[in-house]
Design a protein that fits this description.
This protein is an all-alpha fold. The chain has a single domain, classed as Ferritin (Up-down Bundle). It has 6 helices and no strands. The model is unreliable at 1-21 (pLDDT under 50).
């Protein structure tokens, strides 16, 4: 039994390593733009689930803010790409985010009431922490186009506020 568990863990580690054989730091500006657009759409997806399932005023207000702010940033990103005559490029990280989001959305859809609210809030906090860290410490330092970099810096300011609101929401629901 112990050998089976060790083999399973080793397979999991090797699988994760192969998924991340590329580094987010190696993505070009158009790939980074796709990751950001994907991450925004994922958060919009989670927020729409929250609006369908939650009766908590704080959760619903937060979800509405997520939809409004993430849609606005995506519109700005699409406008900038159009101005630059460029198109975002799908990549391993965008695909991984979407795959993970399917799992989380399925989990959220299976919950109800206070259990849903708590899990949604915890997910939002963790999600914003992870994405904000990636944007601040990996993407912004590696973006080459000044206009794209400025858009990411502005978005990061908004999303750090989201992280703070998510943290307050988690505390209020515990």
């Amino acid at each position: 039994m112990k050998k089976i568990i060790i083999t399973a863990v080793a397979s999991l580690v090797l699988g994760v390593t192969s998924v991340f054989a590329q580094s987010p730091a190696e993505l070009n500006d158009l790939e980074i733009a796709h990751v950001a657009y994907t991450a925004d759409n994922i958060d919009i997806r989670y927020a729409k689930i929250a609006l369908e399932k939650s009766n908590d005023t704080k959760v619903r207000e937060f979800a509405q803010t997520m939809i409004r702010d993430h849609e606005a940033v995506n519109e700005q990103a699409l406008a900038l790409l159009a101005k630059l005559g460029a198109e975002a490029q799908d990549n391993f990280l965008s695909q991984k985010l979407n795959s993970d989001a399917d799992t989380i959305a399925s989990e959220l859809n299976g919950l109800a009431g206070a259990e849903f609210d708590k899990r949604y809030a915890e997910n939002e906090l963790a999600y914003h922490k992870a994405v904000n860290d990636l944007v601040e410490n990996t993407f912004i330092p590696n973006i080459e186009n000044a206009e794209v970099k400025d858009l990411f810096k502005a978005g990061l300011e908004i999303f750090k506020v989201h992280e703070g609101h998510a943290e307050m929401m988690v505390k209020s629901l515990n």
